Fold this sequence. Notes:
- The protein is mainly beta.
- The protein is 15% helix and 52% strand.
- The protein has an eight-stranded antiparallel barrel with strand order 3-4-5-8-9-11-12-13. Strands 1-2 form a two-stranded antiparallel sheet. The chain has a two-stranded antiparallel ribbon with strand order 6-7.
- Strand 4 (113-127) and strand 5 (130-144) form a beta hairpin.
Amino acid sequence: MKHFLFSAIMASGLAIASAPTAFSQTDTVVTVKTTTTTTTTKRGSKFSLIIGVSDTERAKKDSTQRANENKGRFVGGITFTRFDLGFSKLIDNGNFTLSPTNDFLDYKAAKTSTVSFDVLQIGYRFNSNFKVYVAGGFDWTMIRLKKDITIQKNSPVLTYVNENIQFSKNRLSSSYVHIPLNFELRTKENDNGKRFYFVIGPEVAFLLNGKVKQVSNERGKEKFKDDYNFEPFRYGGTVRIGYGGLGIFTKYYANDMFASSAQKGIKNLAFGITLGLN
């Protein structure tokens, strides 16, 4: 009797121990994948649907995609690209040295910078190598002044006053919304999936505001906003050369930087690196 009870208990334990395995086997999904057919396999209570694609169909799809790259189509939308980061140079009537009249604008070249990017574009891609598009974005030019002066607000001409304090930062800046028209040429992708880019085109821009930012021990941080006689309308051109997502750029603005007659002939040249060329 004891032997019988012991055997029954052992049998029950083995049954309980094997139950999860039995149930898991019931729920196991077995799938069969082929390259030419659609197969549905059922085991237990679950179903699995696998759709295979033949090598012939895949090759046909790939060739269609490559062919579509050479078809003309409209492109564009919201974006964040052509992030330009570089330096700005003031050209005074053809010279990089400022004239005595404009010497108060003397600046620290290594800290006079430009930043810009595009947030919108729309255009037409004629084929995989050529595209024309109009973009929209913003740019800033920041002139780091050497002299301890304060450019005056609300003045019909660009004027300043000398200060008896030493500024650790004295920056005159402008911000514009710009609208470039770009013509883009690009090569075929290489084995690494990258290509060379060449982009050129004119650009117009509209002044948003100007600003003076000063930092000193005596006054702390101060900011003053005004148009500071920056040109309300600006036009020029841009050239970019790049590989993959990295490139270099040069921008030249054909009209004067300031509307003041005393600063007639001062133009802005910018150059640096571009991140994102697509």
